[in-house]
Design goal:
The complex is a heterodimer of chains A (about 170) and B (about 280).
Chain A (H helix, E strand, L loop, with lengths): L1 E4 L4 H6 L5 E10 L5 H9 L13 E4 L16 H4 L2 H6 L2 E6 L5 H9 L3 E4 L4 H6 L1 E8 L8 E16 L2 E2 L2
Parallel strand pairs in A: 1-2, 2-3, 3-4, 4-5
Antiparallel strand pairs in A: 2-7, 5-7, 6-7, 7-8
Chain B lengths: L4 H16 L3 H13 L3 H20 L9 E8 L7 H17 L11 H6 L17 E4 L5 E8 L1 H6 L1 E6 L4 H19 L4 E8 L2 H14 L7 H12 L13 E8 L7 E9 L5 E6 L1
Parallel strand pairs in B: 1-2, 5-6
Antiparallel strand pairs in B: 1-3, 3-8, 4-7, 5-7
Helix pairs in contact in B: 1-4, 2-3, 7-9
Classes of the chains: A alpha/beta (about 170), B alpha/beta (about 280).
């Protein structure tokens, strides 16, 4: 079992292999189809810092954040998978969700030394391993806002890395 | 509104159980799958899902953050009576149960246009979520019994209701179902599945049969058709979370209704996620 703590370094990613089971800790961001295109727009407009968001070495977990907890949504939704290039270029090292992603996306991740990981939808367990949460941007989106969580040992499996994948 | 408090409380508690507790036959199905799964990552995932279920049951907390849309099946015995007050009390029980679980706030606000494009956002009250229309059926037992099922969004994306030309051969229908399920489970992300299949004369009836299959189905006893679907989808090897392995499908629950005198069967296939059917039952 490997361990990753954010911010994730270039070497951390280089050492990862498809199929690695990893315990992930530290601060991570959460967003899904409603908010990720807005985050991409902030990057393009160079306004990310205005929201105190630092994507260097970061993780983006494709989930809503609600009183019911957190759990992965399908990463192959158009707006989510479509956000991978801009977010990776901006420093996101690990995209975390569920479901198969396209070969083109897997190849593109390698260009930026980023990886895709899946996480079991174990909301009750994740709730016990979530230390804190805050809205980082777009609070008007409610549970679909861009959140920052501090987490301890989230169980994840590397699904696509270095132009290889489990699919 | 003057509700029947006893019904409200029973329904509320039943919804919480549906959203947080695995039935015993499902726990056993997971234990069997863990024992037989040879893929290391897949086995780890199955263990996590079962551990999650034990934690959710202990905490009375949601199994999954997509707590789902309530779908209700009301069974009516020969001498029992369903009144408007009973139906309103069931609705109030659902409302209170969604607040207690807590359900994820998912009621979309606004008129027809705004509910489609989601431009007015969501109601913050989990209880504002409307259940799907209630399915009512007769039973021989002289009781009024309610089944509460919570339907998540992922299976709704990958499910399919469509016609199949049977050509007077069951294998043609089964092979098409297997083909749909193989494609769906590869993309779902929240495998292992329980496949729910309804066969009817219309889209409405096929969906209704699918819902009843989830009420009547059990992991302990599978028909030959159910076993064949499960076996063949598992041969494709998608596995838990798409990680590979032998456990893409835990079981198939299938209900075949009355059929039309024609060359067409209408089939509804829902690839229920690793927690579904999230179901609990109560006698009112």
């Amino acid at each position: 079992m490997k361990r990753l703590i954010t911010p994730i370094t270039e070497q951390d990613i280089t050492d990862l292999r498809v199929g690695d089971m990893v315990l992930l800790s530290g601060k991570i961001y959460c967003g899904r189809d409603a908010v990720l295109p807005k985050i991409c727009q902030l990057i393009e407009d160079e306004k990310l810092k205005e929201h105190d968001i630092d994507l260097e070495g970061s993780v983006i977990f494709h989930t809503a954040v609600s009183p019911a907890g957190v759990g992965p949504t399908s990463s192959n939704k158009l707006e989510i998978e479509g956000s991978f290039p801009i977010l990776s270029k901006a420093g996101v090292k690990l995209h975390l969700g569920k479901g198969a992603i396209k070969k083109e996306t897997i190849a593109l991740l390698e260009d930026y030394n980023s990886v895709f990981a899946v996480i079991p939808p174990v909301t009750a367990l994740l709730g016990e391993n979530t230390i804190s949460q805050r809205v980082a941007a777009f609070p008007e989106l409610g549970m679909e806002a861009f959140y920052e969580l501090e987490v301890k040992e989230y169980p994840v499996i590397i699904a696509a890395a270095h132009n290889e994948s489990i699919y | 509104m003057d509700y029947d408090k006893n019904i409200v409380e029973k329904v509320s508690d039943t919804l919480v159980r549906a959203g947080s507790v695995f039935l015993p036959d499902k726990k056993e199905a997971y234990k069997r799958a863990i024992e037989s799964e040879v893929n290391q990552q897949a086995r780890w995932t199955l263990e996590m899902i079962l551990k999650n279920a034990i934690t959710a049951e202990k905490n009375c907390s949601p199994l999954c953050d997509d707590t789902g849309i309530p779908h209700l099946v009301l069974e009516v015995g020969p001498d029992t009576v369903v009144t408007g007050k009973i139906m309103q009390s069931i609705r109030e029980g659902i409302r209170q149960g969604l607040r207690k679980l807590p359900g994820r706030p998912m009621a979309i606000k606004g008129n027809d246009f705004q509910r489609i494009d989601q431009s007015l956002g969501m109601d913050e009250d989990p209880g504002a979520l409307e259940p799907a229309p209630v399915l009512i059926r007769n039973i021989e037992e002289n009781v009024l019994r309610l089944h509460v099922l919570m339907f998540g969004g992922g299976p709704a994306i990958r499910g399919k209701t469509y016609r199949i030309f049977h050509k007077h051969n069951v294998e043609n229908v089964l092979n098409e179902i297997i083909s749909w399920a193989t494609d769906a489970t590869a993309m779902l992300g929240c495998t292992p599945c329980t496949l729910a299949v309804g066969v009817g004369r219309s889209h409405y009836e096929a969906s209704s049969m699918m819902l009843q299959a989830l009420v009547d189905g059990t992991y302990d006893k599978q028909s030959e058709m159910e076993k064949e679907i499960t076996r063949k989808v598992n041969e494709a090897g998608a596995g838990p979370l798409g990680l590979g392995g032998t456990t893409t499908v835990l079981a198939t629950f299938m209900k075949v209704g009355p059929q039309r005198a024609s060359g067409v069967r209408v089939v509804c296939m829902r690839p229920c996620c690793c927690f579904e059917p999230r179901i609990a039952t109560v006698e009112l």
